[in-house]
Amino acid sequence: MNEQPILLMENITKVYSNGFVANQDVFFSLKKGEIHALAGENGAGKSTLMKILFGEEVPDYGRILLNNEEVKIDNPMTAIRYGIGMVHQHFMLAPSLTVAENMIMGMEPKRLGLIDSEKAVKMCREVAEKYNFSVNPVAKVGSLPVGVKQKVEILKALLRGAKILILDEPTAVLTPQETDELFVQLKLLKENGHTIIFISHKLKEIKQICDRITILRHGKSMGEYEVKDLSEQDISKLMVGRDVVLKEDKGEVKRGERVLRGRDLCVQDDWGKAMVKKVSFDICKREILGVAGIEGNGQREIAEAVTGLIKHYNGNITVKNHDISKESIRKIRDLGLSHIPEDRMTYGVSADSSILDNIISNRFYKKEYNNSGMLKKKKIFEEVDRLINDYLVKCDGREQTVRMLSGGNIQKVVVARECSSQPDIIVVNQPTRGIDVGAIEFVRKHLVELRDMGAALLLISADLNEILELSDSIIVMCQGKISGYFPQAKEMTEEELGYYMLGVKHQSEEDLRRACCEE
Hints:
Elements lengths: L4 E11 L5 E11 L3 E6 L5 H8 L7 E6 L2 E3 L4 H6 L2 E4 L11 H5 L6 E2 L2 E2 L1 H14 L15 H14 L4 E5 L7 H16 L3 E5 L3 H7 L2 E6 L2 E7 L5 H9 L17 E11 L5 E11 L2 E6 L6 H9 L5 E7 L2 E2 L5 H6 L2 E4 L3 H5 L6 H6 L9 E2 L2 E2 L1 H14 L16 H13 L5 E5 L7 H16 L3 E5 L3 H7 L2 E6 L2 E6 L7 H9 L6 H8 L3
Parallel strand pairs: 3-10, 3-11, 6-9, 9-10, 15-22, 15-23, 18-21, 21-22
Antiparallel strand pairs: 1-2, 1-4, 4-5, 7-8, 11-12, 13-14, 13-16, 16-17, 19-20, 23-24
Helix pairs in contact: 14-15
């Protein structure tokens, strides 16, 4: 590997108008043909640093050198001209367009004043063949598996001449098999002289694929290291400033009475597409039932049906033997059900309200906090301050606006609200997505504690390590159906779950119904 850096970011400093210091004198370097990890807690400054490199933000101080020449990157088009491409965690693709139409957007080949579709397909086919990516240029993006969409995003950047690729959480929604395939392709890109910045919270993957790592903490650089010289524990300690334990030491499951039951659940989306197809399951007290599956295979719809967010479903759902099909969300909650939603910013919090208002929002009407329409403010303040302290929410106080918190601390606000109401059942969807190792450790530990205290948990997660670490039993979703049920989660592996997620393996419907459902 060439030791001379091809890119240097020196003394990068960015202070936002509210006084928040996102980056302070950060140094970051890249060598040609390396895969370089960028790691740190949420709020550590990773996103800001990469936005500066890609021209989405302008630093207050510092400079960028590309091939020993200082450059000014003030917008993404400039970054692309300098050979820098970025693949965002949430794909920037139009699902109704074809692969080719997405890839050539903004650089459409023309013939007689019109878009030359034939040439566009040829361009996309050539770049796919050049980099050994198996992609059909004429397929509609909306019909593609998530792993192929990831390839399309990478090819979009390569088609525009990217030599430096920024990949933001590229494996967040991939199966182990899809992740392995992506890593093969990233190594081929590296061998062809491309340089990759790999942003990830998955330390195992950083160790597997990356050459060097830069670690940020509180907006400052903790240094650049050779990945081979650090253990996963070393990396997490540099990120958080202390030792972190991500492997939960769970006791044996001691299932109690059944408290949540689904029978022949069928859900369609707004366009009439069947998303959940005759799914049945039971969950008992003191049990964590994990739901694994590639996103878009019905997991979200199951969570929304169980929590009352959608009513247009067929089948039956009972909470503690109470049919909830016609019940309001408040009534379902009053039955003892809590919900940590997939999208915390849309469904988990009111971002422009205070921490106090967010935490009290699910209980302000109860007699404990409300006296005939008059809020018991002293009681409320004491409760919210206690939860901020108990759940380790880093903030300026109960009146701070939630939007000003880091992702991990926003998630802690949601967890504090949902888990402090003594729930009997908790529906947990992507509890640690996009949060740092310190917050992950806290949230996972707390979920296990709730299980041990008698709660039943429906855990949906794209992180298979999380599913295996936390679950007592597991169901796997594929194309809206349960493809496998495993009553002993500890006997499963990520690779085996991946086969069921892809539909390569599946159990018979008769065996599944007998295994999943306690009649």
